[in-house]
Amino acid sequence: MRIKKIKFKNYRQYKDVEIILKKKENKNDLHVFISVMGTGKSNLLNAINWCLFKEEPFLSRKDRKSPQLNLSIVKDAVDDEEYRMRVEIFAETLTNQISFLRDQYFQIHKINNDQGYNSHETREQFITTLIDDNGNSKLYTDEEANEKVKLFVPYGIKDYFFFDGERLDKYFKEATGQHIKNAIYQISQVELLDRSRIHMQKTLEGLQKDAGKKSPEIEKTRKELEGENNNIKTHSNELENCKKQIAIAKKNINKLEDNLRGMPDTEKLQKQKDSLKDDFIKQEKLYTDKIKAKNEFLFSNGINIFLWPTTKNALETFNKLEDDGQIPPTHDKDLLQKIITKEKCICERDIKCGSIEEKAILSLINSIKLSPKTSQELTKMKEELVSNKNTVELYTRKNSSITKEIKNLKEVLDGIDGKIKDIDRQLAGFDMIKIRYWREEIRKFEELRDENHKSLGIFETLLSNAKNKFKELTEILNKEILRESKLENLRNDMLLAQDIIKILEESNEEIMNSMRQQIESETEKRFLQLHWKKNTYKEVKIKDDYTISTIHNLGFDCMDTFSGGEREVLALAFSTALHNISGSDSMIVIDRPFAMVSGITTEYIANILSEISSERQVILLLTPNDYSKKVGAILEKKASNIFEMKLSKNERELKLEEYKYVNYT
How far apart are CA 439 and CA 141, in angstroms? Predict the structure, then answer.
């Protein structure tokens, strides 16, 4: 099934637009729309959804605030008059033609002399028209019309027909098991079996109540059975709620992580900065203490240092006196003088006047310039000077050591300060409050996810126990009823109901498993066919819990290491597999398929989409940046139509023009 034409009347920017999607000879069923952001590209996707399902899932923030009715109509509206908005889709299948028409009527009320407007919906209609090969048409409205939509795009799997580029990237990052199971449930059409099982379960419960009226013992067991059945329902609901909470947590974690992509880890950097600041304070104290110690040491030795030149000169003088033999004194001058006066040596030997001895003593007396007392004083003075010299030398060594320590500490401080400034540069320009909030929210959702994972195991155990108990009580109840001969007819009806319920449950499980395996096989086939890495992956698995995994040639699961482009290929492979297994050949519409990929991957994706368009209709909504030279060269070879979307001068209406081809080849 493919779209032939879409007609718009007063829908947002599409005031009066008709889009014809004719497949050209020697081309694929590929149609490309190019427009700058905010022109109305995404609203084409919204319009298709609104016509079929009365939903606009791809609205921008700007469009959410603006009226659904075209702004030119709103501006020129007359109070209390009714205005119609319409989207009509014309499609075709192999056997017939089908159209979907949705009308919505509005009344506009102007406020304060055209300064504002209020609008409200008055009435609506939805009509589906089927036209067979003979030209016979049949109209359907309301619920019947909605039922016919399912032939075109089943509501439960519509997300596998209409995509935006960001969603393609996230397809297998958010609660994949739940999504895949739901999709398989929808196309398996086991809902009828479920409804039949529920109906038969109620019938069985009614029969059990009738049996309970015949016997108090049976009624007691029946009530226990009913209680256990309620436990099964309760634990099943708790289990599903856990899964939903986990899915919500994962979705929000992925969204917040996307927000933080490319941003610094502010929390880690802030902790590093705080630690550096603490270290800086400690090192700064050591630095100031060392400077203080140096100053105190300098002060305590200041006099000696100040007098050092004088001390040095004095020591040189002393050394000269010592060299001259002046100090220390070798003879006592007074004693020698006394010997001359008494003419007697201390050994009692006579010293005669004019004798050789006298002359020798007089020569000694003349050679002695310093008195013993003076010489002794000078010797003591020298000791102090030497002490001062030693102090100065010690100061020099200690001062050199402490100066080196101060220099090293200064280098450490400069290094810490440099690291702090580097962190400040990394954080500059970012909204720290918002980043901290996002990281805090991630922690909360991680806690929510982990708590529900723990609860999941508990509820699975409780549910399993309740089911086992239910089975046990059912057997007990059947035996009790079997003992009551008057309940034979009732017993037969109950056994038949139980058999039917068992058959319905087994059939449901078999159909779901069979469908899962078929989709797994088809997804694997398409993924390996479409992916550009031909020697990397060997299989795709959809496991019993409906989670999907891709197996590397070396045997490990590599889903977690997939790039955005690879997830996109897997999403497309799964979607087309789902279409084929369900028997649907409906179109695929993608808004910005290259939004989450870059480089050569965009060319791979362009080739894949071109290939898919050989078997079904593919509609691509691109920006001029998406439609690069290389992408254009790929798409133009296969595209039947390439349109350019532009806004009118007043920016209220969209104009559609055929894109001017560029011969890229």
Answer: 50
Q: How far apart are CA 379 and CA 601, in angstroms?
A: 96
> Facing residues of 645 across strands?
656
Whether 140 and 34 have beta carbons less than 8 Å apart is answered as no
Contacts for 492-499: CB closer than 8 Å, 24+ residues apart: 493/207, 494/204, 494/207, 494/208, 494/211, 497/200, 497/203, 497/204, 497/207, 498/204, 498/474
Give the Cα separation of 54 and 126 in Å (integer): 9
Q: Taking a C-beta distance cutoff of 8 angstroms, is the pair 5, 19 a contact? A: yes
- Could you tell me if residue 175 is left (phi over 0), alpha (psi between -120 and 50 degrees) or otherwise beta? left
Calpha distance 605→154 (Å, rounded): 26
The whole-angstrom separation of Cα 348 and Cα 340 is 13
Query: End-to-end alpha-carbon separation of the chain, Å?
Result: 32
- Residues 445-504: tens digit of each pLDDT: 999 989 999 998 899 999 999 999 999 998 998 888 888 877 888 888 988 999 999 999
Map tokens 């919505």 to a residue. 104
With contact defined as beta carbons under 8 Å apart, do 420 and 217 qualify?
no
User: What is the rounded distance in angstroms from the CA atom of residue 507 to the CA atom of residue 147?
Assistant: 25
- Encode burial over 65-74: b for 16+ CB neighbours within 10 A, e otherwise: eebbbbbbbb
Q: What angle do CA 293, 298, 303 make, to 5 degrees?
A: 150
Half-sphere exposure of 111 (CA within 13 A, CB side): 4
- The 10s digit of each residue's pLDDT in 130-156 is 988 788 889 999 889 998 888 788 888
Query: For residue 30, how far is the Cα from the chain centroid?
Result: 33
Lowest-confidence region among 24-28, 429-433, 604-608: 429-433
Count of C-beta atoms within a 10 Å radius of residue 195: 11
Which residues 6+ apart lie within 8 Å of 146 measured at CB?
126, 128
DSSP 8-state assignment for residue 555: S
3 state SS of 135: coil
Beta strand 116-131 with 137-141 is antiparallel
Q: What is the CA radius of gyration of the chain?
A: 49
Judge whether 497 and 204 are in contact, CB under 8 Å.
yes
3-class SS of residue 620: strand
Helix axis angle, 488-530 relative to 600-612, nearest 10°? Answer: 130
Question: Taking the mean position of all CA atoms in its chain, how far away is CA 661?
Answer: 39
Nearest to 45 by CA among 156, 167, 140: 167
CB 591 within 8 A of CB 5: no
- At 190-235, the pLDDT tens digits run 888 888 999 999 999 999 888 888 888 889 998 999 999 999 999 9
What residue type is assigned to position 649 of the chain? K
The first and second tokens of residue 32, run together, are 């490309």
DSSP-derived 3-state class of residue 116: strand
Q: Where are the beta strands (DSSP E) in 211-299?
A: none
Rounded to the nearest 5 degrees, what angle is found at the Cα of 151, between the Cα atoms of 147 and 152? 110
Residue 428 pLDDT exceeds 50: yes
Q: Are 504 and 193 in contact (CB under 8 A)?
A: yes
